[in-house]
Amino acid sequence: MANQSKSDAERLDLASLDLSAEKRADLLRLFPEARTEVEKIDFEQLKRALGEAVDSGKERYGLVWPGKADCFRTIQAPSVATLRPAPEESVNFDTTENLIIEGDNLEVLKLLQKSYLGRVKMIYIDPPYNTGNDFIYPDNYSESLQTYLQYTGQVDAEGRKFGTNTDADGRFHSKWLNMMYPRLYLARNLLRDDGVIFVSINDDELPSLRTLLNDVFGEESFIGTLVWKSRHNVDSRNKTGLSSDHEYVLCYGARISGQQIDEGKYSNPDNDIRGPWMSDNMVGLATRDQRPNLHYELENPETHIVYACPEKGWRYDRNTMAKKIREKRVLWPSSPEGRPRHKKFLGEIRSQFTGFSSLLDVPNTAVGTQEIRALFDEAIFDFPKPTGLIKTLVGQAMSSDTSDICVDFFAGAGTTAHAILDLNLEDGGNRKFVLVQLPEPTRVNRADGSWEETAASRAGYNTIAEITKERVRRVINKPEHDSGSLNLAPTEQQDRGFRVFKLGESNFKVWDADSVKSADALGKQLALHIDHVRSGRSPSDILYEILLKSGFPLTASVEELTEAGKTVFSVAGGALLICLERELTLELIRAMAEKKPERVVCLDEGFAGNDQLKTNAVQTFKTKAVVFRTV
Q: Would the pTM count as exceeding 0.85?
């Protein structure tokens, strides 16, 4: 602003990334001619710039359902929530780079946009399958945070609630799509350019999910549909008479690695100087009419045994075959009834990987239940995915020699974390995980309003999120569960911990311009502006909100320093300095500036109305090319 006072420091934006503003900015960078005087888009000019590429027809192919337009409004509404650290529920909080976040995944995904944009290698989710009673969602999507706070008892209920989606509802499928679309849209932004997303599903919503993923990720990003046998015993209760024994995993993204070749098939029994080889087929695939040049008899030049032409001919023409014979690559049978084959050398293979089968050879859900029993001594979670399934998918998307991140925002019983910790033990990897789980009650709410106890609630686990955290704790403390009979021990470099964060209201009372409709209301808002840190919030709460809203990951290193007798937090090796002192001094300002960080954030109340000190701070940081913000 042209008339801004020199003493004014810009405020830190406490909202999550404004996705629509980012897209508008990208569009105007590409088409500056579509810019209006008020920084909006002249759509008619944009259409002229695009020419014939604009489809203005009313009828076009795509997935449309009641509520889709509201989904975009939900996506575009920034979150002003925060994620509060819970070190007491964590394992190795100060050193780990793994996360378990308790909260509504829609709000959490919004909050992760700034710090995890384009950083995630793999996403795996096992969302509710929409079987009629198995997913909960906010009835009012525009009030996701408020609904969540009421759901978890952080604020008064006021009648809002999460509800189940029953098949008696007239918009049974639409509600499921309304729940899924914003979450997938936000998740897409987190993926790296070479990232991959896997989504588990059954027959109920497979067609809708496929079209939905095409809409969000692009049909060109479709890799394939994986099928696995999920059921161990035949289902005799299905009224159709069919036992549906399989489920699907839809895969979208750049590419998967493929199946590693079996080097055990290669050997060198004749000490060939070209190295290990395997016997490979030379029979072709074409009839004599289709490829007559591939149909001929073959003669061993040493024994003069003649071998008849196969019905589909040979794989190679006469010239190529003659070259293979001269190079002694052809394996000759001792009998004319045999079929000549050729040597395929390991050293000549262009890739160590071959095609990955869409039919997964993985354990079924009964094994997943056994894994839960092994950790908890009873089945406290219904139909958990087996770790073998997740490990197979992780192996296709994440390398063992990197610190790639996998996100699962329908974490359930924590199978994804279990699988990654397991796989890291087996191959020495150091992959990371970010889990998000709603604290959904483990007790079942009956139609009459009463609650039915479950194995989980009787065991003392009140929410699914508690099961998620406890399972990962037990896996970390009992590594033999990870590696089975291998009984491997983790290396010192491997990450065997996780940080717990919980969704909550911002630590700062946000200015609400819409509520200022009277002098009394204005007075209340001004009071909030003066003392805008919520009571009961710890320095750690405030620190991690500033870190998150500044675009740093929740696992960034934080070092506590003492400068000019005051506490300063150094984030990511000094890239960001955060000072939460309520009494700032010029000596402290100069000490922080001398460290030449990229950014500095201080509490606004630290200036205590001292405009001269704030002016000096603004100018001091400016001379050192340091971005300065207050909050």
A: no
